[in-house]
């Protein structure tokens, strides 16, 4: 091993030690401060954050001591690879988020550093990563309409930075088995820019539901009915006149059912519901009346139970990898399907979280990540159909990756995704230029139908 390798390790060890020292000093200062008017509320939250930071720093020290930074193989990807050099396999360079003050930088500086760490140098390489971040209907219409910065149409630049951050951590840790700790760190990086107080936090479930904007088909209803974690309630779902109680549909299992009250609940009844972790109450008027039904997510009753579920999910996957006949696509798809159905991590981005985990498993197994065409198919199709969709998404990602490498990264996103015919048809079919306002909600049904019509017309 050459001297430059020792120097890199020493520099990273010094940086990590400095971060540990700063965290310890900060903790001591908090223990001294006893006059804050929100003392009883803030101290537990602060200790949770410091515990997370300590765990993160410990992992960084272990990674520096034992991981890729401790090797100086000639074929290791360099810190600043040429275009496309770092788009396959694990990332070997530094982790920008581990640096002190990184999250305080302007968001565009964060994006620039994170894209560099991923090896993203061109619009085509960015588009390839966007294929994992956005499903076809939004990605394709963004590109053919001339939308500026398609990656920001959901949740603005912060959403894109958070995706890059979480994906980078997953790619840097392909040597690690899936675990609750790894899942937690990915959630932390996805959420930290939006809700720092809840980043990395697992909940008990029991409050989540998906409000449907269109009715489910027969096959979609069948897929939900076969999933013990989920319950479909046909629409329009209304909690009038007296509210709805959600309760376990099978005793001892986290799946839920709904019971409409036939008279106003008394204070005693409401208190009993609040005190029972397996029950919840949907008050009258809580859900808009123009829905097409809901999907109830499960209630694990406690954080410990939710943690046990995720630990078991990880254990089953890890055990399966060593068995004859292991299918990377089927196993990764089933893991993602179970994870998104559980819906237990606090905050938004459950879908993104689940797909980053799924792609971590695929890349760990030596497969390309999956650019799945329709994200909602994870819960609305059968397990075998979803596994087929994941495999197809992985294959086309690999195809796009090959096109970029053959072009040296110099290919337009419209050509990368073969969108030329759709781009010509778009204005003829009433498409608007740059239709998406950055960071706002977008009409899934509207753009789904437009995308379907464009696709059909372009194939004639």
Give me the secondary-structure topology:
Blueprint: H1 3-32, H2 39-66, H3 107-118, H4 123-133, H5 136-144, H6 156-172, H7 180-191, E1 209-211, H8 218-225, E2 231-234, E3 244-248, E4 256-260, H9 267-275, E5 280-282, E6 293-296, H10 303-321, H11 328-342, H12 350-364, H13 377-380, H14 383-407, H15 413-416, H16 420-425, H17 444-458
Antiparallel strand pairs: 1-6, 2-6, 3-4, 3-5
Helix pairs in contact: 1-2, 3-6, 4-14, 5-17, 6-7, 6-12, 7-12, 10-11, 11-12, 11-14
State the gist of this model:
By secondary structure, the chain is mainly alpha-helical.
What would the keywords be for this entry?
460 residues, mainly alpha, three-stranded antiparallel beta sheet
What do you see in this structure?
The protein is mainly alpha-helical and 460 residues long. It is 52% helix and 5% strand. It contains 17 helices and 6 strands. It has helices spanning 3-32, 39-66, 107-118, 123-133, 136-144, 156-172, 180-191, 218-225, 267-275, 303-321, 328-342, 350-364, 377-380, 383-407, 413-416, 420-425, 444-458; strands at residues 209-211, 231-234, 244-248, 256-260, 280-282, 293-296. The protein has a 3-stranded antiparallel sheet, covered by helices on one side. The longest helix has 30 residues, at 3-32. It is globular. The model is unreliable at 1-86 (pLDDT under 50).
């Amino acid at each position: 091993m050459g001297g430059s390798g020792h120097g890199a390790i020493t520099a990273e060890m010094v940086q990590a030690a400095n971060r540990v020292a700063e965290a310890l000093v900060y903790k001591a200062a908090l223990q001294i401060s006893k006059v804050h008017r929100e003392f009883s509320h803030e101290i537990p939250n602060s200790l949770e954050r410091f515990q997370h930071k300590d765990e993160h720093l410990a992992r960084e020290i272990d990674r520096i001591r034992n991981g890729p930074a401790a090797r100086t193989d000639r074929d290791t990807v360099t810190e600043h690879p040429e275009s496309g050099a770092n788009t396959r396999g694990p990332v070997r360079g530094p982790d920008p988020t581990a640096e002190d003050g990184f999250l305080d930088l302007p968001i565009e500086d964060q994006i620039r550093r994170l894209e560099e760490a991923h090896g993203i140098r061109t619009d085509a390489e960015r588009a390839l990563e966007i294929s994992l971040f956005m499903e076809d209907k939004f990605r394709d219409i963004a590109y053919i309409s001339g939308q500026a910065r398609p990656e920001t149409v959901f949740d603005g630049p912060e959403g894109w930075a958070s995706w890059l951050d979480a994906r980078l951590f997953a790619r840097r840790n392909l040597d690690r088995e899936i675990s609750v700790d790894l899942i937690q760190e990915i959630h932390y990086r996805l959420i930290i820019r939006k809700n720092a107080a809840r980043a990395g936090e697992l909940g008990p479930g029991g409050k989540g539901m998906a409000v449907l904007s269109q009715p489910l088909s027969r096959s979609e209803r069948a897929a939900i009915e076969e999933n013990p974690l989920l319950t479909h309630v046909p629409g329009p779902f209304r909690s009038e006149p007296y509210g709805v109680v959600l309760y376990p549909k099978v005793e001892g299992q986290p799946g839920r059912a709904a019971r409409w009250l036939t008279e106003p609940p008394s204070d005693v009844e409401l208190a009993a519901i609040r005190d029972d972790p397996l029950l919840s109450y949907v008050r009258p008027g809580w859900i808009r009346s123009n829905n097409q039904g809901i999907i109830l997510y499960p209630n694990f009753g406690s954080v410990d139970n939710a943690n046990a579920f995720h630990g078991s999910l990880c254990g089953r996957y890890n055990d399966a990898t060593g068995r004859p006949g292991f299918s990377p696509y089927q196993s990764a798809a089933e893991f993602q399907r179970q994870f998104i159905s559980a819906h237990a991590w606090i905050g938004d981005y459950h879908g993104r979280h689940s797909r980053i985990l799924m792609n971590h498993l695929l890349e760990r197994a030596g497969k390309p990540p999956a650019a799945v065409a329709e994200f909602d198919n994870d819960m609305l199709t059968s397990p075998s159909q979803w596994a087929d969709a994941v495999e197809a998404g992985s294959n086309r990602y690999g195809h796009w990756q090959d096109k970029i490498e053959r072009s040296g990264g110099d290919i337009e996103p419209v050509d990368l995704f073969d969108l030329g015919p759709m781009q010509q048809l778009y204005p003829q079919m009433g498409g608007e230029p740059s239709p998406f306002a950055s960071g706002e909600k977008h009409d899934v049904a509207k753009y789904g139908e437009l995308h379907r019509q464009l696709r059909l017309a372009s194939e004639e």
